[in-house]
Amino acid sequence: MRHALLPLVLTALCPAAQSGSATSGTGNLPRNTPAVALNFAIQIDKYVFFRIGDGAWPTPGGTTSQVGFSLSPSIPAVPTTPTNGNNTAVNWSGTAPPFAVTASGNVLPVEVRSNGGQVSVFATVTTPLTSGSTTIPMNAVSATSSDANLPAPPIPASGTGTSVNVTGGGTGTVNSLVTIRTANWTFAYDNSVSRTAGNYSGQLSFTASVP
């Protein structure tokens, strides 16, 4: 899983002013009230801040996070954990062994900040899960979010997956066009299908985009 962090562009204020002048008379002339016009122009640039794992607002940085899954088989229907070695006797019905999954580093903090309107997030398989010549589709890994306002996107088998929308608003915002959302994403491995033994490694990248 890749820790994705987009560069932050700070808000820029660019005022431009244009003024006029007027005078009023005194003495026996009728009293009048002068008025002048002053024009303002303010430009506010868009920004997007997105992180998964370490690194925090407002400074981009951090390192790529590592999510691990260790699968341990057991022999039905004792269950008995297989041991390394030759000529080891064990009762076995012959059915496929189930696998217990031990996860590490699979709960990661996620943060999105933007003033660019609707924020969308999607996942892309940068490197497939591969061990030698054997590959596991990346959608064997799934992700869930602790907050529906910042959902985790579907993980595709390969390529780029479909996007999900982040709900605008959040603590510290002035309206729904500004987004400040945080959540924890939990990654899990779907162990329902038997796989060839090996050490598989791959990489995902996540992207936050605005219109």
From TrEMBL:
Keywords: Signal. Residues 1-19 form the signal peptide. This is Uncharacterized protein.
